[in-house]
Design goal:
By secondary structure, the chain is mainly alpha-helical. It is built from four helices and no strands. The mean pLDDT is 88.
């Protein structure tokens, strides 16, 4: 498994576990869910940070992993080179055409 793939998987697990924890907190607040998912979230958070130091990454990408929940996904986006390409095939609306 490549480092980027491991980072992506750990990031998704971290975000999903945070969503489950927050949903549990704001709805039924079942203690067993918190007991099971809390350590999973913490482990995924630490894994994202550790993986960012094991792969060739910029300091900016590594700092993004410190943001709980979405930091890993932000780091993956930074390492991939920014936002995905635009869809639609038309011209870039931000660009002013030459006269």
């Amino acid at each position: 498994m490549t480092g980027m793939r491991a980072l992506r998987i750990a990031s998704v697990v971290e975000l999903a576990s945070l969503v489950v924890l927050l949903a549990n907190l704001f709805t039924v607040h079942v203690e067993e869910i918190s007991t099971l998912v809390g350590p999973l979230h913490g482990t995924a958070y630490l894994a994202v940070m550790a993986i960012s130091f094991l792969i060739p990454a910029s300091a900016a990408a590594r700092w993004r992993t410190a943001i709980p929940g979405i930091g890993g996904l932000l780091a993956v986006r930074k390492l991939r080179g920014g936002p995905p390409p635009q869809r639609g095939g038309g011209p870039d609306p931000r660009r002013v055409p030459d006269p």
